[in-house]
Amino acid sequence: MSLPEACEREIVGLHDFFERWFRGEAPETDESFARVADALGPAFEMVTPDGEVRKRDPLLDSIRDGHGHAPDLSIDVSDVAVRHEDGDTCVLTYREHQTAPEEATTRVSSVVFIRDSAVTEQRSADHRTESGDAPEGVLWHHLHETWVPK
Description:
Blueprint lengths: L2 H21 L6 H8 L2 E8 L5 E3 H10 L8 E13 L2 E12 L2 E13 L22 E10 L3
Parallel strand pairs: 1-6
Antiparallel strand pairs: 1-2, 3-4, 4-5, 5-6
């Protein structure tokens, strides 16, 4: 599988996990949660649609705490596009549509992925993945989300 194909599979796969996790359909176990923990690189950082910068570990804590808190949430990903590929790095954009009974939102996101093998040496004891390799062989390195006006 090519790097862009792995990145697209990762985007879709992680959002499928988020939907199941927040709906409470995924088991609330370390093994299940490893799906997201193993996907975020050691230096992962995201910029939320509101402009807040979130680091990997506090974000993971927040996701873990959200288990089952949105039983009617629906997440759909569309318009995935490769914007740049260079060696072990790939930049993509995509739209994320979230629907819950109280609200529907859309955001456009830009994400930087790094092939998992390219960052193995960068992992430290404090920021290693919890159970091994990244699910699709790529790690989320940076994510920037922007609200799409309604």
